[in-house]
Write the structure tokens for this entry.
Amino acid sequence: MLKRHFPLVLVLAIVMLAVLLPFLLPWSYDQIDWNAVRAPAFGESHFFGTDEIGRDRLARLAAGTRVTLMVAIAAALVSLIVGIAWGATAGWIGGRVDEAMMRIVDGLYALPFMFIVILLMVVFGRSILLVFVGIGLVEWLTMARVVRGQVMGLKQRPFILAAEAAGTPSIAIILRHILPNIAGVALAYLMLTVPQVVMVESFLSFLGLGVQEPLTSLGILVKEGADDMDMTPLGLALPGGLLVMLLVCLTFEGERLRDRFS
Amino acid sequence: MLVLITRRLMTAIPTLLVIILASFFLMRLAPGGPFDGERPLDPATQAALQQAYGLDRPLWEQAWLYVSRLMQGNFGPSLVYRDFTVSELIAQGLPISLTLGGLAILLALMFGVTAGLFAAVRAGQVADKTIMMLATVATALPTFVTGPALALFFGLWLGLLPVSGTGEGGAWLIMPVVALALPVSGAIAKLTRAGLASVLKQDHIRTARARGLSETKILFKHGLRPALVPVASYLGPAAAGLLTGAVVVETVFGLPGLGRYFVQGALNRDYPLVLGVVTLYAALIILFNLFADLIYGWLDPRMREG
């Protein structure tokens, strides 16, 4: 278990650290230690040292990871809800409605979505709420396609036909008989959506269009690190490495889940 | 074939129009405008500016004017780069972005297809597993991490490659193109591997083997072409990904491409600039999808009627 699911264990360890560290560290992520600006790593009071204005790197890393993961989970849930609702409706009703709904998905796939999200950020201000709603609204397309396919397949199965013949209303069939049967596949794609969302969030934050200071996220930390990398490479290596590690682990686990269910 | 092209173009125009209008109205919904500076302008100046740029007219009239000017290739004036029109900025930035994107996709194809081919031939062996693991890692490498990391290592530490700007020769292209191509090549390697693995199990391959054709011939003549179908269908999303990636890479490496103007425009509320770039991006992606469809038809003749 531990060895086979090493990536998952690593992700869980990172999550635990991100949640617990703020309670254990004497420094908060936006607190400036005037006595230790640009402190080197592994010093007495700052484990990873401090950044160019004296903020504890480890505390900032934990805070950034927390924000990034929170945005990711919230956005992934938005995409899950929209995707399942859209895909299940299209798959269940079928026929013209299905065709029209899937055409819309196809059309949206072709749009330069990142740019539409950036437009949204510009228009409605760069609030964190909008970051995840915007990203979630972008990432539901694959979920909708997958769910629709599953529902189409299930619709012909005897137990669904039996439920229909017994006069169970459509809503009840979908909620009680269809959804439990697509939960596994939906979970796998949810797992694959999370790294996508992490990537989008960090991308936006890196460009200054996502999460805003004083709040921090891995994208912002990478940006700060990149601006200061000639002085302290650690500032780039820590958040960059952590971000890549999270993305790789989540992708591995998601792909394994997907392969198991399909 | 011609039918396919015309049909695609017929749907492309309304799609493009919807994108343009949606972005247009979205931009105008935004609170705050391009002339909000540190110090508020006096009302007369504000009104004059609004009038000069046509911002005082009703919205639908502005939209109509915008679209009709667009038809003539006139994207309007840039509000932030005051001495330039958006068309001039685009003409300046587009070649850089296209060079970056084009080279990146070529590199990714070369690298990805080779790696995928190699893995498929060694299916189940250590080489296969290693390549597939590396491919997964590559797909998870964000350009905004690899870009600065490459710049730090090869630019600042080793001093081999220029860190920013366009210079003499092509050396300035190397790091941006590699950073862009990495995630795409990972995805292509995976698709090639999966496609080839399923094709190699099919009857026509068995027939070819039974007839005593050499493995190389089977692989390249009969296996690779159908196996590349999933790769072709990935080219559309890949192009969109490259354009987004280019935004970061141009920012990181200080290249005056479209992406940089887009970010600057977005941060400064330069409506015409952002609209122009979005329109162009949309057109490019649609065009590239059409191109991918054509390759698709060439790879799999059954698709030509589609």
Summary: Chain B touches chain A at residues 15, 19, 22-23, 26-27, 29-31, 136-137, 139-142, 144-145, 147-149, 151-152, 156, 236-237, 240, 243-244, 247-248, 251-252, 262-263, 266-267, 269, 274, 277-278, 281-282, 285-286, 289 (CB under 8 Å). The mean pLDDT of chain B is 83. The CA atoms of residues 7 and 242 of chain B lie 26 Å apart. Residues 86-121 of chain B form the longest helix (36 residues).
